[in-house]
Amino acid sequence: MNYFENLFKPIKIGNFEIPNRVVHVPTDISSANADGSVSSNVIRYHEEIAKGGTGFIIVGASTPDSNTGRPTVTCLSVDADYLIPGLAKLAEAMHRNGAKCAIQIQHPGRQAAYPKKGLMSCSDMVANTPASAGHEVVYAMAEAQGKDIRAMTIEEVFDLIEKFAEGAWRVQQAGFDAVELHGAHGYMIAQFMSPLINKRNDRFGGSFENRMRFPLEIIKKIQYKCGKDFPILIRYSGEEWFPGSRTLDESIKIAKVMEEAGLVALDISAGTFEAGGPTMDPMYYKEGWNTYTAEAIKKVVKIPVITSHTLRNPEYCDSIIAEGKTDMVGLARQLIADPYWANKAKSGKVKEIRRCISCLIGCWKESLYIKQECKCAINPVVGYYDDFLDMLPAKSPIKVAVVGGGVAGLEAARIATIRGHRVTIFEKNCELGGVLLSCCMVPPKLKMKWYLFWIREQIKKLGVEVNLNTEATLENLKDFDAVIFGTGAKKLTPDIPGIENAIYFEDVLHCENKNCEYYDSKKAKPVKAGQKVIVWGDHYAACDTAETLAMRGKEVIIVTENKEFGQDLEVIHKQVMLLRFAGGNGEGLEGRPIKIPVVIKTNTTVNEIKNGEVVLMDKDFNKEVIQVDDVVLAKVEPDTALFDQAKAAGLNAILIGDAKKIRNVRGAVTDGAFAGLLMGEDITMNANGMLAKKIPRVEGFEI
Ligand SMILES: Cc1cc2nc3c(=O)[nH]c(=O)nc-3n(C[C@H](O)[C@H](O)[C@H](O)COP(=O)(O)O)c2cc1C
User: Fold this and answer.
1) For 91, phi and psi rounded to 5 degrees?
2) Fewer CB within 10 Å, N side or C side of the chain?
3) Is 654 in the pocket of ligand 1 (CB under 6 A)?
């Protein structure tokens, strides 16, 4: 039986038919070789998505000119003929698995990751915002550098038009079904199209017609080199979400111009990098929040329209096609998190879908943002295709104990069980989930529950033995061949006068959440915080607690010893959070402003807690006394007590997740996955915490 019939109806784009309405919208996974040629990781990433049933795959940003602009340091390139054979292998890998495919050509202009300086753009205007710093050079011991951007000469403009067209011709030679121009997110084409950035006073700037000239000249040149029947799409933002930049009215006008120019489909995205949130929507953004732009554009054109941004659920995706709001749905991070989304939806296995939680940790903060290859916080396979996709069942299954049913422990149990080991989980609480259970207390973090549902479902499906309400002891661990400790974090209690008066963040969060399905009324010791509170700490626990209390109408002061607030937070979430702390709206359409702005005190510590009064001390030892009702302690440290005992007793023990080092969901999932992989193998971890050698694959299973 086929589910979601609107989603799985074929559609024609230009001269080719796509088997369904599911589109992989371009995602630069920054996994190419140094010269921009196709690597085996690029092939494996796209091949899995094709195997997973996605009908149309648009490969991410590929530069037409490596010398003047690469959006990421290891993006693909289409700037030389010698790259064609590799591109052809990539197209074949997708075609072989039933998908149609295109490549997006993008010059980043002033947003280039490479070269670092002397960036070309349509004009020399700089919009310096926290988000644009992601593409700048920021050295550890220096303040963020301003960009060095110059306006292109007219010769350079014509040269780049030629290079775009040559790139498209190479894409055609390689056997792709179409090419897409990247006119979104503030990159070069968007810079020319922009009413804000384009300050040229020649024929490529000024009026609407002049601003459209750059993309239109590229289109004409591609049609000349590739023939008019080689399908061209364009991606651009329906709204750019930055003061002075393009809004929907002009985007509707652009749609008509592009249709007249002969384009075969419009891929409608959102934002520019200056805007932050809307370009790569953080957890705050609601499913399909950008669909209204595609809907408005679809009304004025006959060619198919693709909508994207925070699309995760097949029901929702099917419904917007059925309601005529879009022709196709574009998924980016969802297919990183689960490349088999389409097939799972088609066969009604919706619960099996590992929905992307929009955390931006694996695919942005800990990868592209720091000039590395794309990863995923919840799908450990991404970037490590050989380790996971090629693994075989364990030769000799062993008995594995997992202590702690948090994220790290659950992922370790999942992978070890898939490999054939007999796994038993010991969890001292009444629920599996660990620190994720607290996330359902934090309104902006509710998407984290999606992962929790999924991993719990997997553990059930795999038949892992789970002992809830059970403290592991050396006695009950001694009969196992290996023990994985995912014991998480415990309260860190600073030694200052009056610390016994502080209240703990988890107890505060658990207050007022009686409706949560994970609320354990027997065990929770909810504590209600007073009206004016200090939240003491800096990592996720502190930031989320501060935001939640502020949303409950409290007056919140964050105190951190660090010189910068939230230095370990994901950058786009941090930008949105800071906007919200200042009383603004960082959540796009769904603003829920905080009434009393949150105050942040950096370089400061709590020196003493008295009754109704707190003594703070800054880095120069200046003291300040402030009146507050409560100090909420949000500091944690790894809990290794049982692991240390197990090691001393000679057990074969391994430490993972927050118990190893306080990090985030990606740290926990990755540690867990690799620990699960190496169970029963004579394999060690290398210095980066990855396997020192490969384990071969079990045919026919998907993880
Ligand atoms: C790692 C990463 C790389 C991306 N690369 C591109 C790209 O090359 N071209 C592009 O148009 N958009 C790119 N995007 C934006 C996505 O296509 C998409 O618009 C955005 O992630 C929101 O959609 P989603 O919620 O489905 O992820 C990228 C996003 C991520 C997270």
Assistant:
1) -60, -45
2) N
3) no
